[in-house]
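Subject: precorrin-2 dehydrogenase

B.,
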Amino acid sequence: MKAFPMFLATTGRRIVILGGGEQAAQKARLVIRTDAEIVVAGLDFDDELRALADEGRVRLEDAREIRADLFKNAALVFVATGSAGADGALHALAKGMGAPVVNVVDRPALCDALTPSIVDRDPVVVAIGTEGTAPVLGRQIKTAVETMLEPRLGALAALAGRMRGAVGQRLSSRARRDFWVWVFSGPVRAAHTAGHEQRAAKLLKARLDEGPGAAEGSVAYVGAGPGAADLVSLRGVRRMQEADVIVHGPDLPREILELARRDAEREIAADPVAAALEAAREGQRVVLLVPGAAAELPETLAAAQGALAVEHVPGVAARPP
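Prediction pasted inline below.
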């Protein structure tokens, strides 16, 4: 990656847009839903910007009087005049006056940060970037993600946020993770998606009142396929995202492990089956990753079924021609 993806905090901060035309209006549309103070500095303002100013949603300033305090406490500065010469001069001015993060429209070489395509389900926000190389592709991916996420998903996330403190007080780390997996993949999300938001909230609170059951260990025996990350099965990826522990041998390709949950414990074992069973008996959710198809469940794992939850997730047998 040439650019590290990160969300900028905007609470109590300012976003400055230098320019007053259509490009500046586009940037104002992009950031208007944040809680930042939005200041547009230009010479002649687009009608849309004037309307936003009349509504109190942005503040307009005369760009002939730019001072260093314009950039004080600024989270981000956009330079969007539509003129290459003016953009270059304003970029130099903003950086010289201490602006920390500057984005110049259509000038990647002058950008400290690049503007992604955004899927907005506030507070759930998905940002898609191509490092400025293929914005059309970024928009196509945005369209695909828009169809994947239900319109009211943000409201469910907001409900979860309101309950986060109570969940944190009542449940252990493992139990919290299991609880939220149940919320976002079970009846709570289904009820919320169907428009029954009160029922969803009641289901969530009732499950929390029940308290956690005993942590049950499990082993998912996952075939990693012939070595390419895009040949791991969808179920295998899901189990890797849910795991507490990832057990594998020394020869597993690193790109496969990139699919696993970031904070899952990684264990390289000479005897991966024995290591996986030991961790599962301690109540851990374990993924045992093995190269190839993993067409048959090892006898030791098969014998453990009943005492432990054991799942067989075969992989792809060979790389397609």
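The CA atoms of residues 103 and 113 lie 6 Å apart.

T.
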